[in-house]
TrEMBL record:
The lineage of its organism: Bacteria, Pseudomonadati, Pseudomonadota, Alphaproteobacteria, Hyphomicrobiales. This is ABC transporter ATP-binding protein. SMART domains: AAA. InterPro entries: AAA+_ATPase, ABC_transporter-like_ATP-bd, ABC_transporter-like_CS, BCAA_Transport_ATP-bd_LivF, P-loop_NTPase. It comes from Xanthobacter dioxanivorans. It comes from the Bacteria.
């Protein structure tokens, strides 16, 4: 579904990503872990169309989207929960969700939940605060709104950048539960995280990133052995 081939990207003359290549298939959760400054957010920005790779290709559902702007990618079913959440802070939750809901409906794609009630049961705070301006919500509540917006788009691929960053353990638990519930609904999910223990709980397989490169591949079911590999954890994941 998502295929990244030898992507290089950076900021002006500063190269960050070097020959990044990996894939995400339908119905799997792929984790990408790495320490601060590894280039995880830079990669997500390149996937979202916010940063143009200097070389390499990004293919989604069989076609090359490397040069496509972000809104086209969203229209085709690539949904992102970015680290800054990218919500309109002065608008209410309902207003923030309306556009995604309309885009999802027009796409003709299937909903990932049987109905919106099921989605809001999983994200109760969204329903409770539906008429509240986003700027009055806590960071965790805003994260839930960003997730709801991504899912209302009826995505085929969901990319989440550091979903646990700065959030209380209870909210993180909630996000994990939601990811488990999304399994088996035809969506490919890429979760980019510094917290490898969290990824190990939810991802089927994954990759370790360091200094702009993929340095290790974690096969299906092998997260535990990664966590037990002191040399790897120490070298790339900060001990
Ligand atoms: N807008 C920018 N302009 C210049 N350099 C940047 C910019 N954003 C990030 N960088 C640099 O790119 C490198 C990778 O940063 P990036 O934010 O992608 O890493 P990360 O793995 O997401 O780390 P973190 O978990 O701390 O967010 C770092 O050296 C960073 O200083």
């Amino acid at each position: 579904m998502l295929e990244i081939e030898a992507v290089h990207a950076g900021y002006g003359a500063l190269p960050v990503l070097e020959a990044i290549g990996f894939h995400v298939e339908e119905d799997e959760v792929v984790g990408l872990v790495g320490p601060n400054g590894a280039g995880k957010t830079t990669l997500v920005r390149a996937l979202a169309g916010l940063l143009r790779p200097s070389a390499g290709a990004i293919r989604f559902a069989g076609h090359d989207v490397t040069a496509e702007p972000g809104h086209r990618r969203a229209g085709e079913g690539m949904a992102f929960v970015l680290d800054n959440r990218a919500l309109f802070s002065e608008l209410t939750v309902r207003q923030n969700l309306a556009l995604a809901e309309r885009m999802g409906r027009r796409s003709g794609r299937l909903k990932c939940f049987s109905d919106d009630a099921e989605l809001f049961d999983l994200l109760p705070v969204v329903r409770e605060r539906i008429d509240t301006p986003v700027q009055l919500l806590s960071g965790g509540q805003q994260q839930m709104v960003a997730i709801a917006r991504a899912l209302l788009l009826r995505p085929r691929l969901l990319v989440m950048d550091e979903p646990s960053a700065g959030l209380a353990p209870l909210i993180v638990k909630h996000i994990l539960e939601l990811l488990h519930r999304l399994k088996g609904r035809g969506i490919g999910i890429l979760v980019v995280e510094q917290n490898v223990r969290l990824i190990a709980e939810v991802a089927d397989r994954g990759y370790v990133m360091s200094l702009g490169r993929l340095v290790h591949e974690v096969p299906r079911g092998a997260w535990r052995s990664l966590l037990e590999d002191e040399r790897l954890v120490h070298a790339y994941l900060g001990g």
